[in-house]
Design a protein that fits this description.
380 residues, alpha/beta, 6-stranded mixed β-sheet, 3-stranded antiparallel β-sheet, globular
Length: 380
Amino acid sequence: MTALPDPARSRAVLIGTASYRHLPQLPAVETGVVDLAAELCDATVWGLPVQHCTVVTDPLSAHTILDPVHQAGEEATDTLLVYFAGHGLRDADSADLYLALGDSREHLGYTAVAYQHLRSALRSARARRKVVVLDCCFSGRAARALAGGDVLAAEAAVDGAYVLTASPRDRIALAPDGERYTAFTGELLGVLRHGVDNGPELLDLDTLYRVLLERLRAKNRPLPQHSQENGVGRLPLARNKARAGLRAPAGPVLAADVRTAMVSTGLAVARLLRAEGNTRDALPVLRLALQEQQTAGSEGDLLAVQLELSELLAETGQVKEAIEVLELAFHQVHKVYGPEAVLVCRRLADLLQESGNHLQACEVLKHALDISERGAPGPA
């Protein structure tokens, strides 16, 4: 394979449980899942659209984990990636793997999500290729379950699946005290962010596994495991940033591509920060993304950034600046038909009305009505 999976036809579901009532806390999981989502959406890594990357943090029930996987499995036709980080559990009466929820208890599988249910969701997915990444204790049990090594595996095999796990089947994973990430996810993020020296331009799953194995072994940390079917290990998953740094600058075209990637990444990071309730850090990220997009002189994600920024400004009481951002967006789309134009008009009208500019709000709403009814702008 010589190209990355098509981002438009691929999906990712990233699940992380950091807070527990009966098990040790794992604060590194939350930062890991958020930062991994940002890397996958980075145009210089894979470029997965933000709306195609679902992040689930601290799920409290089985359906909050499995429903997003089923939905992504219905939508993805190229590649489906599912990542779970948190405690992995063993049931007292079986050798099965269970994924812990916030209220799960040790040795009681019925309080967690059986891996077999996640496996069933993967089996029903439409995607040609499925990638499972498990950063949890005893995660090697999942690799074995897909490796065809026993009767259970033969019954549960998933066509086109690749499983990458943080530890062997009977070993615990590692979340070092004081470190930002778990041992496994920290190394995974390091590879995505910095690449592999002397590696190929595109990093496939087998290469990713070998590099993780070498780096974790050198640090005397739990060794990852993997299994695959139908040669999925040759599937490229990320661009090798180490190779990109060796190439000479390609002039203004490269600069524009980098700027576009910065905007896309900034928008993705800001949305993830907002999802985590961190509006303080999301605001400067969005302002920077808007500045970069305007400097680039192209539309691209400009409207998406403006809508996101105006919404966050309004939420934090900065209504005047929110109106200014939306007015700029309105001037860009007021002669364009489409749902984005209507959305800009409606949001701008709401803010104008809240600030007492009722006449101007009515004019903007009339314009939105003209667009919706006629499919074209009203009289200038």
